[in-house]
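User: Structure tokens for this complex, please. No commentary.
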Amino acid sequence: MKIIIVENYNAMSEKAAQLVEQQISENSEMVLGLATGSTPLGLYENMIEGYKKRGVSYKHVQTINLDEYRGLSKDHPNSYYAFMCEKLFNQLDIPLENVHLPDGIARPVEAECRRYEALLDRIGPPHLQILGMGTNGHIGFNEPGTPEHSLTHCVKLDESTRANNARFFKSADEVPTHAITLGIASILKSKEILVLASGKKKAEAVKRLLDREISEAFPASFLWKHQNVTLIVDRDAY
Ligand code: F6R
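Assistant:
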């Protein structure tokens, strides 16, 4: 794992955007794995600026997101599809047919999980996967206890994860109890992985990651099994 320590959140976001743009300049048809949550928002702002000011085009890029809440349709304001459209896709030149997220309302859910994993294999795996990390070490929505061989599946969210994400909802009760997520093995299919961590809140998780003890109890630790992972971490989180 390559570790890049930067001064603050802005520096982390800029560095991450440089790495994304470098890959696009080498391959305009790259497949980019994306995450939601607060951590990548600065990266997305920098990507939008790159498109608007430096003409970085996403016309031929394909994106595959990590996860989607179970029970929320694409047009629900709290769906990750809506989040990604608002924070990124609508402000780039990426055609919406090139963006992919699990369908939160498809039934049966097992079939949707199989469809999404097959799509990952067909379009992807991503040349570069962006990851944030939960305070409990989750990546995607792979909560502690998720096995290393897991593929796309439906998970029951940890209460700590629901509480963390309640800030995006009108009330904590509205946070869905389940989500569809790429599994650990699905994430590890990516050719390269970029993990972002910022702020004091993430310091304990970063410390555990850097302990290198690989265990289901801390899902991000499985990243040590991948050959091409970069962690960009700011001083508060390091
Ligand atoms: C989001 C995701 C999650 C988040 C994690 C950190 O698609 O898969 O693993 O990356 O919960 O969230 P933030 O960035 O809000 O601290």
